[in-house]
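ERR on first pass: missing label on line 2. Operator R.T. fixed the label and resubmitted. Corrected input:
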Amino acid sequence: MNKIAKLFVTFISAITLALVSFTSSFAKVEGEYIVLGSAISLTGKYSSNGVHTQNGYNMAVDRINKMGGVEVQGKKYKFEIIYYDDESNPKRAAQLAERLIKQDGVHYMLGPYSSGLTKAIAPVTEKYKIPMVEANGASRSLFTKGYKYLFAVLSPANQYLEVAIDLAVEKNGGKGVKIAQAFEQDAFSQDVRLGILDAAKRTGSEIIIDDKLPKELNDMAATLAKVKAVKPDVLVVSGHTKGALTAIRQISEMKVDVPMLAMTHCDAAKLSKQHGKKSEFALCASQWHKNLSYKDKFFGSGKKYAKDFQKEFGYDPPYQSAESSAALLVFKDAFERANSFDRDAVRDALVDTEMQTFYGNIKFGPGGQNVAKPMILFQVRCKGDDCENRVVAPTKWASDKFYHPIPKWSERS
Amino acid sequence: MDFLIFKAPMLMVQASLDGILLGILFALIAYGMALQWGVMNIINIAQGDLVILGGYIAYTIYLWGIHPAWGVIISPIIMFFVGWVLYKLVINKVVDRDLFISILATFGIAIVFQQLMNFIFGADVVVAQSEYGTTMLFDNSVTLPNSKIFSAFISVLYAIALVIYMRKSKLGRAIRATAQNARAAKILGVDTEKVYAATFGINAALCGIAGALISITLTLHPYVGLPYTVRSFMIVIVAGLGNLPAVAVSGMGLGLFEEFADYILGTEFRIGAVFLLLVLILVYRRFKLSRKREYLK
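pass 2 clean. output:
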């Protein structure tokens, strides 16, 4: 009896094993669906941006499927995404990536939200040779590790505020400027800082304050008091949404006068809504803005995308959503050019990507970063209490003139 | 290294005032912690999260169109009941156990609170606007946000009220008696269970006030509670339990120390310097204690 039971167990496990390996080897494409996987922050501290990312993915999947899907070897396929909640936790994200690949048999991945989580997942996708198109990891270190299966549709972090320094130098008649900067001590912000250091060197500018803000800190009074004392030409701040909100709060309360203020994460922080007029004239780096003139056949233009997104999800799309939608367009394009579901063929097709989407031009550099799209700068401008972000650089897309210098607090109403 | 502060004396004034004003606010949170630590022998890891919850209450009334300063009245009332319920649900089960269990329990509470706040209020960083303006001193070279002055003033006001309450009221006397010797207090007819619940409620209320003040002076986010716990822990360690003036002085001292560390060592060492100070103080305490004669229990 015991023997029979043992045999039975062996038999069942053999069948299960066979089934598992069977499903995983075919799960990349199930029937008419191409299955993509993504670990995404639906809970935890990144959950709002995680949801923006997911909405961006979903919007593009719907649109591509509705407009005929992906054509491979003469057959039409549709996209489908398996999501798992990574709880904004890098360890969990790496586990889930393994699970997506090994258990769910996913062969193509979409990125998570934030540089930190992308960094956690990239070694896993690299190990299993799974092509990953990511839209929310901008840290420069992602693109210097020699990853072969990582592709980012966004510009790397060091490019975020370089344009701002160029602008300041331009306003200074081509001469170098005095820069004061405060950056949070995390991978992303420190990359932004490296970009500023490069720009300063290039333009002969001088960095007179270089503060690194501890992550726990939510008080910049000391940095700003120093800024008041040394009077720089430009103040640069990057510390995610907390940094942006703290900076505006304390700059306005301490009446710090600087001719130019450049930041990151203004729209994620809903700066113009939360601080209103106090945030006016702040210059913000952004990956995308709806007024840019890029076009594609799926979403039309940025404005059209924003309108459709608003209709579907009830809010204006932040750039995190737009870039996430673009990731799907890249995948579709790569599948069709590869004309195959072979992972390496798809990967090679991704390498050769050169296309325009509503979000911007996309062409991958040797490290996997997008080298075809410049960062843009917008400036917060207010009419009464109504504030909005207007593109001021690069000049090609500028809808408004860059307002410089910022009027003194004593002259502002 | 940056010695800018020695070149511009006005920076010294600015740093001192910033440090003191912020320190007073931290002292209020620390006083709550010292109170319940002294009475119940519980180190509350969720202290900072109670503060943030208090802040979100003020932020919510701000969203309803009420001035967030009213939060310093509404938030402590709500938080008192939150504290009371928390005591009845969790804390009363760990109050007589060893310190480690209470740390674990309150750590659990902290995680639950963070997730709940994230769920209810979202993961965005938020601020409430007081529109209190700015006080300029010395020909505009020193600027003080009125919201910070307001928050220091309210903190002092509540601290004084609490001291008077502890001295004069029946409950206050019962709390002090329980802190001194819970068993003796019980024998003499003090309902220690009720005293514990009230103490935890008062602590939560103090956190509520501090949170409301933080919503108009700094920023709120579901996951930024821990730094407040750590700082109040430090203030209590330095000041000792049940000693309000010492807590106030140590709070302000810590605020000052932090600001000056920022100027002299650099912003990146600001928090590190505070931790270094804590280690030094603990080593010093240990050294002092080892020289004291003690009898075996």
